[in-house]
Specification:
With 626 residues, the chain is an alpha/beta fold. The protein is 44% helix and 14% strand. It contains 25 helices and 14 strands.
Length: 626
């Protein structure tokens, strides 16, 4: 059975167009029982692909098409020499870990236009990996193309000696250079007995997706389909071909097809999603995390309940028992450690969501809301029936959030802390504008159509067509507009760029590189910020601690107001001790003067607060909840 071993998903940004769910579905439809992904220099889709493939009964093969510098990966004086390509596939856990290392080092150490490795790194991290000579841009193909066959043989031998499992990649596309390269590869195979393997360099799922992919390339290179010199693929052949199509294409060299099966049999990567890798703070000698957590809770209990009732103690013990069973003591202790730092340094903070229902967090001073007084249910935060990482979303002054992240980095180690990646996708309006440019349409025509897409959460072109009759009309009446909208639909939702998540931070017990590939944040964020190549969802899947450090302008306003009052009036206001039943405050709220008040300043909330005229804090809580 043939297996595709050279596949680019949408995470080969603006080059690959295969969305992972549809890719796996199509592979299943074609009767495939295994599939690889090999995005350019990244592993962004690895976890998503692994889970989707497993669910579909397909063996996932995790790989990457990496870039190899022609000298040292640390050297930026390349003299115009472009890096070579090389496909790497993980055979097992060792290979996967080495792929994490290589991908990270390429980004953090070797990035120069592209994330680059060198041969020294390949020698160091070769174990558990299969190497394939790659496309036209591979070292062996390039040497063949330059008429340097003997050097191509030496390069092929080097890769074989380094990896053990090395294959010469045959591709059959209507590209003149490939005919020369393939002849050379077959010669090397014959003379050196280095095996051949057939691939199709997949960039989109179905043959009819070729036109949409062409537009995607135009978007990525800021060019137009009318530009003859633009980057484009040679025809519509770069799709997920069926095993039958591939067998027919390589009928004269069936061993190249058979070798995809041999490679597949070697790839038995099993990822463990059942373990947590939580960081751990220093705890007193002889204490377990659970014991230390209980000690801290009972130390803090009298501050909030000077004469705690039996019901309060019973509730606290019950919560501690659940934490003990779910093994989340370390997580809560890390949050306590962070909040202790912010309090000691006068940084205003708040915790939102279901965390307010925990008596443990209240006793630790993490939350200020009394869960007993407000009859909040702990099981909303954590319960035995749904054992998953509870969310403790922390808000900090937005002008001091960086101080908190810097503290966490110092406390747990720079190689244990990173921010989390997120992907900007082509939304409805952006897809129209980008596709319009790629089609060479005038700005005015495209802008007129884009402005007809309503502003609303989750808006897409299908919904916009249903909701806006004017958009429907021009779509039906104008063939140019119809082509624009239909083309935009094909690329809508595809990942366009990577950036840093506004709040997400990951902290691990062991160095992060053991579990997740890393890269620099975009220059717009900071060249010094390291972020994961996995998204928030994937970080949670592999058992790492993801936390939301939210920067909130409202807290900054409160902090500045507090400081100004102290400076001008000499009054040191403790915001936690403000009365919750002040009549004048409620009169002000009832008048709708709530600009700058978190969650109450929107026009809808201001209108409803005038109608409700709250007189108790419970009234406000009900309004926000509803």
């Amino acid at each position: 059975m043939f297996t595709h071993l050279h596949v680019h998903t949408e995470y080969s940004l603006l080059d690959g167009m295969c969305r992972i769910p549809q890719l796996v579905t199509r592979a299943k439809e074609l009767g495939m029982d295994s599939l690889a992904i090999t995005d350019h220099g990244v592993m962004h889709g690895a976890i998503q692909f692994y889970l989707a493939a497993k669910e579909a009964g397909i063996r996932p093969i995790i790989g990457s098409e990496v870039y190899i510098a022609q000298d040292s990966h640390l050297n930026h004086n390349t003299g115009g020499k472009r890096p070579f390509h090389l496909v790497l596939l993980a055979k097992n856990q060792t290979g996967y870990r080495n792929l994490l290392q290589l991908t990270t080092k390429a980004h953090l150490e070797g990035f120069y236009y592209k994330p680059r490795l060198d041969k020294e790194l390949l020698q160091e991290y070769h174990q558990g990996l299969i190497a394939i000579s790659a496309c036209i841009a591979g070292e062996v193909p390039q040497l063949i193309l330059q008429g340097r066959l003997d050097e191509a043989k030496q390069a092929a031998l080097w890769y074989q000696q380094t990896f053990g499992d090395f294959y010469l990649e045959i591709q059959r596309h209507p590209i003149p250079e490939l005919e020369v390269i393939n002849k050379g590869l077959i010669t090397i195979n014959t003379e050196l007995d280095i095996p051949l393997v057939a691939t199709n360099d997949v960039h989109y799922i179905k043959q009819e997706d070729a036109a949409a992919h062409d537009l995607l390339l135009c978007i990525g290179t800021n060019s137009s389909v009318n530009d003859d010199k633009r980057v484009k693929m040679a025809g519509d052949f770069f799709y997920l071909k069926s095993p039958e199509e591939m067998a027919e294409l390589y009928r004269d060299i069936p061993q190249a097809i058979e070798n995809t099966g041999r490679i597949t049999e070697m790839c038995n990567l099993k990822l463990d999603f059942g373990r947590l890798h939580l960081p751990q703070i220093e705890i007193p000698e002889g204490k377990t995390p659970d014991q230390f957590l209980a000690d801290l809770c009972y130390q803090g209990l009298p501050q909030y309940y000077p004469n705690p009732s039996a019901a309060i103690k019973e509730r606290l013990d019950a919560e501690l028992a659940v934490v003990r069973e779910t093994q989340f003591a370390n997580y809560i202790l890390v949050v306590w450690d962070i909040i202790s730092f912010t309090r000691q340094n006068g940084i205003l903070f708040g915790v939102r969501g279901s965390a307010a229902s925990s008596l443990i967090l209240h006793c630790l001073g993490i939350t200020e809301i009394d869960p007993m007084e407000h009859e909040l249910v702990f099981e909303r935060f954590l319960n035995r029936e749904r054992i998953e990482m509870p969310d403790i979303d922390m808000d900090f002054q937005d002008d001091r959030r960086d101080e908190v992240i810097a503290y966490v980095t110092r406390r747990y180690g720079s190689d244990h802390v990173a921010q989390i990646i997120t992907f900007g996708t082509l939304g409805a309006r952006a897809a129209l504008r980008d596709v319009g440019r790629a089609l060479g349409m005038s700005y005015g025509d495209v802008d007129r159509v884009a402005k007809l897409v309503p502003f609303a959460p989750g808006m897409n072109l299908e919904r916009a067509m249903a909701e806006n009759s004017e958009l429907r009309n021009i779509y039906n009446e104008d063939t140019t507009i119809r082509k624009l909208v239909d083309s935009a639909r094909n690329v809508e939702g595809i990942a366009r760029h990577a950036s840093t998540h506004a709040a997400g931070v990951v902290i691990s017990r062991e160095p992060l590189i053991q579990y997740v590939p890393l890269q620099r944040a975009s220059k717009a964020d900071s060249e010094t910020i390291v972020m994961t190549q996995f998204t928030m969802e994937d970080i949670a899947h592999i058992g790492l601690l993801k936390m939301d450090f939210l920067g909130l302008a409202n807290l900054t306003i409160l902090g500045k107001a507090r400081d100004i009052i102290l400076q001008n009036q000499g009054i040191n206001i403790n915001l936690q001790h403000l009365p919750m039943d002040d009549a004048k405050t409620f009169e002000l709220l009832a008048s709708g003067e709530t600009t700058g008040v978190f969650q109450l300043e929107g026009s809808g909330m201001r209108r409803y607060i005038k109608e409700l005229k709250p007189t108790t804090f419970s009234d406000i809580a009900a309004m926000v909840a509803l």
